[in-house]
Amino acid sequence: MTIRELLKLGIEHAKLGYFEDAAEKFSQAIQLDSACAKAYYNRGCAYRDLHRFEVAVEDFSVAIRLNPGYVNAYINRGSVYRLLGHLPAALADLDQAVQGQPSAKGYSNRGRIKLDMEDYSGAIEDFTKVLRQQPKFAKLLLWRGLAYLKQGAHAALAENRREAYQWAILDLTSLLEEQPHHAEAYNYRAVAYFQLRNYYQATLDVNKALECQPDYAEAYINRGMLRHELGDFQGAIDDYTAVLELNPALQDRSYNQTLVGLALDSPEDATLSEDSPLNLRFRLADLYDSRGLLRAQVGDMEGAIADYTLALRFNPNCGRILANRGRVFSRQASYQQAIADFDQALELNPVDALAHCDRGYALYFLDEWELALEDFDQAIDFDPNLAEAYIGRGHTNIRLGHSANEAMNDFRKALELSWDSRKPERSRLI
Prior knowledge:
The chain is built from 22 helices and no strands.
């Protein structure tokens, strides 16, 4: 067969999804002509579709070396670099492609990379160039909507945040007008409405997302956080539980599955791309941590400890989770276990004022007043506005027989900070 025939046959195999057969045909073409850039390019595409990303990059690189103006090779190599997490290299390739031949494909892919790199303005600019010509391009409406959403989350001024969320809603609404059953669009629009404090519309949208896709784990997470915000703790627990039931293998350290999402109040910058197994572990740890917090708030202490313990399986070096479990142990008067958790938390973050304060209380109730005083002093050094640390130090000074004036000064300071001493949980479940 000739090179042309092999290339044609390989492309036909690829269109049918027979990527191994396609790669074999392109390899045969390369054997006939090792300087055939198209053969390397097409084999790179086949390897990409087989998720053999490293060898795909090698083939695209050979194609570019043989034909330095091969724009599609730059675009596809850049896309594979993005999948590998090599974002600067990916951006360099897409810059080269757009410079060589501006195209919707080039701008779309470059915008997607900029979105991953948190260059939200740059991503919006690239997506907008394409949407001016193709205003109903669904994928780009979703991506630009997400870019606006993330831009709003990072904006310093409230006015800029509000404007970004409103633009996100416009894009996602445009997408839903064309595709009224698009679960992701409803989910992300719910996030935007939530940030604008339109909880009614946010609830409608996240419910609609789950109606469109009943196994949409991210929407359950977002609805759980929305319910938490609205005070429906049991409803939030139910939603978090639904996520874990949707992914039962995840509870047995099977980290090779995917949980995609942008949580309403998540500190992470998740995008539409899949989480790595490592990031997945952290997401699951946060999920169990959140459910543990809710269970503690409704008085289910054993359930809270169980959830915090599961969270620590996925992220054993998280001081926040260790401290949260320690607080529940303290509420159960299991002070030795609480102190063990606070000790680990403070090894990970020695300047955690609240952990010092809570360990101080645990030590206080064990009559270890000298050690308790050290912790309260540390807590106040790290956070002079932590009212409960002054209360704890005041009581400890009394127990130690120190000057009554010292204790009174601490109690006055706590009152100045407007700490409500009648609150039973004393900020311990944060």
